[in-house]
Specification:
There is one protein chain. By secondary structure, the chain is α+β, with helices and mostly antiparallel strands. It has a single domain, classed as Macrophage Migration Inhibitory Factor. The strands form two sheets. A two-stranded parallel ribbon has the order 1-2. It has a two-stranded antiparallel sheet with strand order 3-4. The longest helix is centred in the middle third of the chain and has 19 residues. The mean pLDDT is 96.
Length: 63
């Protein structure tokens, strides 16, 4: 049973997550030779103040 965990900043819509789940599931089924029913996709929204890149919090980074 493959489990795919996706961590990203908040702000994606329900529709975007549904499409992403569908596409990830299709890829895992194709490559791992499993079934859609056995594939789990977990989304976790991580606030920018809890995410750092290069030692700088994303909430502090210049856009």
């Amino acid at each position: 049973m493959p489990i795919v965990r996706v961590e990203m900043w908040p702000g994606r819509t329900h529709e975007q997550k549904a499409e992403l789940a569908r596409r990830i599931t299709e890829a895992v089924v194709s490559v791992a030779k499993t079934t859609p029913e056995a594939t789990i996709v977990i989304f976790e929204d991580v606030a920018k103040e809890n995410w750092a890149v290069g030692g700088i919090l994303a909430s502090d980074a210049k856009t």
